[in-house]
Design a protein that fits this description.
The protein has helices at residues 26-42, 123-134, and strands at residues 46-48, 58-63, 66-79, 82-88, 91-100, 103-109, 115-121, 151-152. The protein is of the alpha+beta class and 157 residues long. The chain has one domain: Alpha-Beta Complex (Peptide Deformylase). It starts with 25 loop residues before the first helix and ends in a 5-residue tail after the last strand. Bound molecules: zinc ion. Zinc ion is lined by residues 88-90, 130, 134. Zinc ion (ZN) binds at residues 88-90, 130, 134.
Length: 157
Amino acid sequence: MAIRNIRTEEDPVLRKVSRKVENFDDKLFLILDDMKDTLLKSQGIGLAAVQVGILRRIVLVNFDGRIIELINPEIIEREGQQIEAEACLSVPHKAGRTLRPKTVTVKAQNRNGQWCIYKGTDLHARCFCHELDHLDGKLYTDNLAPGESVYFTRDYD
Ligand code: ZN
């Protein structure tokens, strides 16, 4: 297991579309374990594989100490709206208010390839949307609520 370097916004890899995971093998398990170490070290609540330079559709979230591995995730239902601040490990020292659904339902495979369903509200919904956007080369800064702009923060000092 190892901590991987987190790519930041000027890195063009963050703008690329990640590929589907086809093989649920030792190579995938290594990526998942390294992503877990990296997420815990960074104290973020979510990490997409592309943020450590791996163009695969893999996301980890840390919801109140529970790490969930999402492989080939898709949002299958969106309800309501929220406008709240968001930040990103790949966009350090900044935050911005985004327009997101209030609740989302996500379908994803686990490390054994089994499909699972997760529902997230408020912060968890923002996190799912934010991390899944990474898989399509998008950053939260693309998704700011009308009239909002990115501002500087000290959160990641
Ligand atoms: Zn991010």
